[in-house]
Amino acid sequence: MTSKWAKFRLLMWKNYLLQRRHPFQTILEISIPVLFATLLVLIRSLVSPEIFSVPTIYPPLPLHNFHQHFTKLNNYQFLKYTYEIAYSPQNNEIDKLMEVFKKDTRTENVTALASSADLELHMIKSHTYFGIEFPDEYKFLKELPDNIEYSIRFPAELRRTNWEVNIYYNWHTDTLFPFKQFGGARNSHVSHDGVPSGYYIEGFLSAQEFLFKAFSRYKNKMNIDLNLFPKIKMRKFPYPPFVYDGLLQALEIIVALFFLLSFIYPCVNFVKQITIEKEKQLKEAMKIMGLDSWLHWTAWFTKCFIYMLITVTFMTILMKVKWYGEDNPNSVFTYSSATVLWTFLLLYSITTIMFCFMLSVFFSKADIAAAVSGLVFFLIYCPYSLIIMNYDLISMKLKVVMCLFLNTGMALGIDIILRYEGTQEGMQWHNIFKPVSVNDTFHLGHVIIMLIVDAIIYLLIALYVEKIFPGDYGVAEKWNFPFSSKFWFKVPEYVGVRDVNSNDVNHLNPNYEHQPKNKAAGIQIYNLRKTFDNNRVAVEGLNLNMYEDQITVLLGHNGAGKTTTMSMVTGMIQPTSGTAIINGKDIRRDMNAIRSSIGFCPQHNILFEDLTVREHITFYSLLKGLHKDDVEREVEKYVKLLKLENKIDVQASGLSGGMKRKLSVGIALCANSKIVLFDEPSSGVDPGARRDLWDLLQAEKGGRTILLSTHFMLEADVLGDRIAIMSNGVLKAVGSPYFLKKQFGVGYHLVCVKKDASCDSMAVTELLRKYIPDVKKESEIGTELSYLLDDKNVLVFQKMLKELEENSKELNIESYGISLTTLEEVFLKVGTDNLEDESKPSTKLNGTTTSNKYENEIENGLDSNTFLVHKGAQLYLNQFVALMHKKVLLSWRNLLLIVIQMIIPIAFVSVLMCSFKALYENKNLPKLDLTMDTYKPSVTTIEFRSSDQSETIENKIFENYRKQFSDLTSLEIIHDDMIEHYLNKSKKYLARVNNEYLFGATIEKSSITVWFNNQPYHTSPISLSLVHNAMLRTICGENCSIKVSNKPLPYGAESIVMMLQAGKNLGFQLAFNIGFAMALLHSL
């Protein structure tokens, strides 16, 4: 018996040969991913990163230029806004506050509204500059509280941009950090925060500053001289030297897509190659001859893995090597670890292979499997489009669940790697389980774990579906088989087998010949029964023995149960009840051991189209356990016996149909298989080759038990030592050809050929009755006169025929012939129910049956040359109609393929439009409280040089600023220069500084500098609010505070329309999806 390792090496050899015979396909499988990686390298070469070799230090920003912001706003905006400020609710105290605000800002047009709803409606209709919304409860207050709250309301769209409308340029109150970074400082080209979020240039910070001043005056009960307080100015934290890579944004769009396109061809090809073996029943044939299913999958995995390993290695090298020289010292993935990238891609490749395995088990047709696999492989990338545009709104758990879609997980992983590239830290082994952003909990570790989980799930699905849906030729398990004790403990299952000796059964039926006593039974069938799901009984209680050194022929009409019986014996189909003992082993529990001694030749040819005759015999001989030293001798033996010497190195695809059939017979016989089953072995073979096959089977039956089914009666008569006839799943008769003819034969046929019409048939009949009184004329057609002779009168045949010959001239008989009952007649009598309803054959001569059909056709004139032949345009029209009729029939008989062809374009466009609708539906921005609690954890840095006078204003402001922090770890007090301190900290811990060191203040006697980290979106108003609260407490006591919120208006109608018109690359995506769908259709 061949070892598992030897079978594995044999399968790998087979896969290697099949792959070698398709060099172009092999080149494509490797070169397509490499080509896309090369395209990424070329794209990378087009844009050189911008290098900032010195620290970026920004100047301070004033907050008093209120009118300037509005003036610039109308220069940018396509929709002109009114220089009006609205507020709500209307209240005497609020009116007083707003009078101070109006005076300070020199704004004449300030409008009061009754409620927040009225305020929103008025601002939308009047295109107001901005609004101030106090809580509606303030309407009934007699005095404003010390702890005041308000929201500043600007339009959702940023107006100080060069874009008329862009969904990205808004206040981003639903987002704290940009989820993508492209290296260096955000909006490094401007000294303010830039867009988004635009707090400075839109005028938000100025409004916040003037509202603070108004409230300070309102609450200044002690009449403190506010002019003595330091002036406030804004300033961005400095940024250390950095490299800005503007290409990263484009790479995030195309890298994942390129990887998808890189692997789609190998995926489709893998699925097709695996399914071809299933479609041609090669897989089941190999299993019948001793191949374990797990070895089959392992060999395919190894073959696919090797190609993927080569591909991934080339891709990693291309994307990590710095090809561009000193002017552009970058690669596609400049900062990320090559081993991390290689491991990620390799893991993705492994999961892709498992995905291919999973898809292949659902199909029995390779072309359909290939088309569907390409479609599904693309569709599981689509959820990524929904996720990436709503990244910050989607929970970590949902992102993890979405990674169950292989390509969505891959795209999310690539996105994380590129985001780490933007931080200039790159993806390293130490940060795999660390999110890129502090407000993000999703990291590459999640993706890697989910890819492993995906691979396991896909493999389990493949193995499970293979068991419950093995296709048309496998043994189907019940859906709950993993939960049965048989599955876990290999408990033998005995169903419907009585203690019946087959010999005893045969004694009970007179149509069963006695069993030979000097022969060993190679196959013993007991009570074998098979019922299909529609309750149709295919085989009913079959009991039959088949003996060594004999050929047992199984006869029966179509649907009699022959193929089902052979399939149960070989393990291709599981019996409903009963069993078979093969060489002493039970098919219910020893099938694996039995298969090592089985040779099988089904109705179809079990040939690999790309293997040669030599390779086929070698492969199957080794698979059955033949020692490798004997293989060459076995090849030479069967090539000679099959008369294929001249075709020994010709691939199966180059053989004729008859040669393929002969090779299939040789495959079944090679390696000295003790049990050999042939299902119509001579079908499609010419008469000469058929005789050769008969001689081969007769010569090779020694030491073997051969079971053969055929529809060719002469073949059964020549080869059959014993013949079993089945009808409707029941064994009707079994025995040698002579026994069956004796048992069911009608005797002998005497056929006399008359010279002319003067022959007197009555005279001939009278002559025969002298010897056989009850002789009857069977038929008289034309010049043939036929009689049926009972075989009990065989002793008088010699005298009777001698007298017939002597009187032939007087009787006008030209010749005569006599033949025994043919096997065909026995089959018609035994194998067909209700014989009395069958029409009698018109003539039987030498065992050949004919009918009057041809004569009737002649009488009806059907063979006469009376057809009308069309020419010219009518001929072309007829041909067109015939071709269309053919196509309609083919389409009707391949409805699944037609449905797929119709669904693919609709599905691709529908998915795109649903994604677009989900992304661009009207989602108004939420209200955002501008407090330190918004960013946790965070560190605030205070630069303060203490004064000798402890009661100075700046000292009080510092103390009140410090008291806002209950957690001392979130406050860092320094006494040296803020710029130098921050740059030193950034050089050492850039990632942490960008994510945590968000706020700061330099408190001096004449001025306070409000520092803010511009990497997040909303740090500038929060940092300003911290200073405002410190100063407010200094003015009116520690109980005073201001809480500011950013509450953008709903998107305007014009913006919504323009968003839909802009489409966010919809045209390209639509064209791409339609083009991809059409390409898949073309492949069908």
UniProtKB/TrEMBL annotation:
Subcellular locations according to the entry: Membrane
User: Which Gene Ontology MF annotations are present?
Assistant: ABC-type transporter activity; ATP binding; ATP hydrolysis activity; lipid transporter activity
Q: Report the SUPFAM superfamilies cross-referenced here.
A: P-loop containing nucleoside triphosphate hydrolases
UniProt KW Hydrolase keyword:
no
What InterPro entries does the database record attribute to this sequence? Answer: AAA+_ATPase (IPR003593), ABC2_TM (IPR013525), ABC_transporter-like_ATP-bd (IPR003439), ABC_transporter-like_CS (IPR017871), ABCA (IPR026082), P-loop_NTPase (IPR027417)
Q: Which GO terms describe its cellular component?
A: membrane
Residues annotated as transmembrane: 24-43, 242-265, 297-319, 340-362, 368-388, 400-420, 444-465, 895-920
Per the record, membrane topology reads:
Multi-pass membrane protein
Put simply, this protein is called ABC transporter domain-containing protein
Print the keywords alphabetically.
Answer: ATP-binding, Membrane, Nucleotide-binding, Repeat, Transmembrane, Transmembrane helix, Transport
Looking at the record, the residues that make up the ABC transporter domain are 523-753
